[in-house]
Amino acid sequence: METTRTIVLKLHPTAEQAAEMDATLRAFAGACDHIADVARRDHTTNKVLIQRVCYREVRETFGLSANLAIRAIARVCAALKVPEKAHSAFKPTSIDYDARIFSFREWDWTVSLTLLHSRQRVETRPGEHQKSVLKGTKPTAAQLVKRDGRFFMHIQIGGEALEPIEPSGYLGVDLGIAKIAATSDDPKGHCGKPVEKVRRKHNLQRKRLQRKGTRGAKKKLRRLSGKEARFRRHENHCISKTIVQTAKRTGRGIALEDLRGIRGRIRARGGDARNRLSGWSFHQLYSFLSYKATDAGIPIVQVDPRNTSRTCSQCGHCEKSNRKTQAEFLCLHCGFSADADWNAARNI
Known about the structure:
With 348 residues, the protein is of the alpha+beta class. The chain folds into 2 domains: 2-160, no CATH class; 170-303, no CATH class. The chain is 45% helix and 23% strand. It has helices spanning 15-42, 47-62, 66-80, 128-134, 193-212, 215-224, 227-250, 262-265, 271-278, 282-296, 340-347; strands at residues 2-12, 94-98, 102-105, 110-114, 119-124, 141-147, 150-160, 170-175, 179-183, 186-191, 253-257, 300-303, 328-330, 337-339. The strands form 3 sheets. Strands 2-6-7-1-5-4-3 form a 7-stranded antiparallel beta sheet, with helices on both faces. A 5-stranded mixed beta sheet has the order 10-9-8-11-12. β6 and β7 form a beta hairpin. The longest helix is centred in the first third of the chain and has 28 residues, at 15-42. The radius of gyration is 24 Å and the shape is globular. The mean pLDDT is 88.
């Protein structure tokens, strides 16, 4: 089974290289907007048809190389197939690269990029983990990304995943907000208090700065942008790594809830509760678990979460009143008492 891993490298361009990368990003975004207008006018998302109509015009108007123009057409056609993106504009924040316009050189850890007016070799400073993953590889696809005034290269590396093991059982995982993840092995689970503390801190800070509205407050808001999301991402990486290691050590697969559409099924009372629910990154945790498990050869399955929180994992009795509180489960049939999330993980 083929897998694709993305490694992020921070670029360290010279002032001239940074200026040309900015110009290339603007030209690429402008080309994408132009191509999108043509696609909407002709009511098509077929790459071949779009290329026939506007390839030459894109190259002449925006100054893109042949392959950058093709990448712009491919990006627009893919985006317009998604209903939510059908009428959106393209921002100068990223460019798709393929093997013809991008290369990675291991001996000096540099990347070569085709930009608007030239081909440039840009310095990177990878960490030990990035070096270990990139060593001996020949990546053929990447994405140039600008975030918070800095440039990054998202390099995609293909490979063969391990053959999935024949599991001796499954490690159940219950996802939540109070506990980000509770496993059938661990009644304590992975507490959500650190994430909630950071969420509250940044929420209050954003409100205070937005009320202030000064230039300094807006500068501070830009500096804080994405900090909470990065903390959540780090926590999800740590939790998923621990769960996969436990499953691998014990020769089991991983079973967790299929929570698609959960936000439409539950109600949040009050603004703070809505903020907690909207910030719940269960899909990100699932995606991290999925690719880490695939790399380790661990099968991962999703199960219907219906009644997993109301059913006794000891006797199988299902009743709404079994769930005494958010944290407490007490079976009214057999008297079994346990942490509610741990009981749900055992059912899963």
